[in-house]
Amino acid sequence: MNIFTVIILAAILVDFVLEIVSNRLNLKALSKELPDEFDGVYDEETYAKSQEYTRVQTKFGFITGTFDLILLLVFWFAGGFNWLDQWARGFDFGVIVTGLIFIGVLIIAKTIISLPFSIYSTFVIEERFGFNKTTPKTFVMDRVKGLLLSVVIGAPLLAGIIAFFEYGGTWAWVYAWLVVTAFSLVMQYIAPTWIMPIFNKFEPLEDEELREAIENYADKVDFPLQEIYVMDGSKRSSKSNAFFTGFGKNKRIALFDTLIENHTKEELVAVLAHEIGHYKKKHIIKNMGISILQTGIMFALLSIFLQVPALFDAFYMDQMSVYAGLLFFGMLYSPIETILGIAMQKLSRSHEYEADHFASTTIQNSEEMVNVLKKLSKDNLSNLTPHPFYVFLNYSHPPVLKRIQAIRNIS
């Protein structure tokens, strides 16, 4: 084993162990006693169901994670990457097409292998707990559409990155960085109008009373509201959500139809206030800026490691290539990515507190935010008592009890 083999293998195993430890602690933190804050919201049966949902999801995650780990290690140490590379080179299509074949086959194979797990998760686990609304047709079409988008959008971008690092010389990483940044900005702009509607229907909010309440609030906080859409989230799940996406004239606030069905007008205004809070606090721009910076650093490091033969030796490769290097560097970069991911989760949690604060201080009654959080927790069977270490590793939102406490402190 060379040094890169040791680093990558250690990173994979440490990440796996951390997940096991955090999941174990999280399960131990499940409390049989319903938190006082949720008296009258959960009944005994629903609370027990929420805890069982956490247990089942954790067990299923361990099974899938273990399977993925074993599959990767067997493929890696059996020389699978080199075999696939030699097979792809056999078509003699040139480096860019060969790279697309190499990476494309890996993606397709991973998708096919994980398909039974996706089916089980959707049609067994989610069905068991009353969430699944996905039909087999919708399930299949989602995957077909995703594959087509990968071919139409992802393949040209990947081809461009390979071309830059193959022919761009010393400044290839800068060219790739600029192109990927431009691509990300364009996608932010066109996704709400052209891509998201491929998967879901977005219709203008028709409830005049609710629309008027939302528009009045938007005027109050000086938010340039273009349109409010209702998304057919019930097409796939009974879970509720709302989100803000896009920028410029394509900003879009979307409410799941399930959210509208389960909440009062005042609560829905509170939900929108939270989403507008993200905009007013410039969270989207901040996250985009951090992402662009991270991409630049990653490409700069990639340009260095693509020239290191030992990285390719770690995967038993006979020949070096940009496309294989992209994959191998991604695995080498994973410890840094894990650390950055934890930092970004922490930042995201602070953003959620800020958005809650904005909403609570701009709506008529901050208790409506509390009511929303309680109902969403119940409807989504959220874990009310997650372990702090599990939150530290995995949560992009603070635990609901901490959010409620923060809102009460504002009041």
Automatic annotation (TrEMBL):
Its cofactor is Zn(2+). Residues 204-410 form the Peptidase M48 domain. Binds 1 zinc ion per subunit. It comes from the Bacteria. The chain crosses the membrane at residues 6-22, 60-81, 93-125, 146-165, 171-191, 288-308, 320-343. Pfam families: Peptidase_M48 (PF01435), Peptidase_M48_N (PF16491). Belongs to the peptidase M48 family. This is M48 family metallopeptidase. It comes from Rhodohalobacter sulfatireducens.
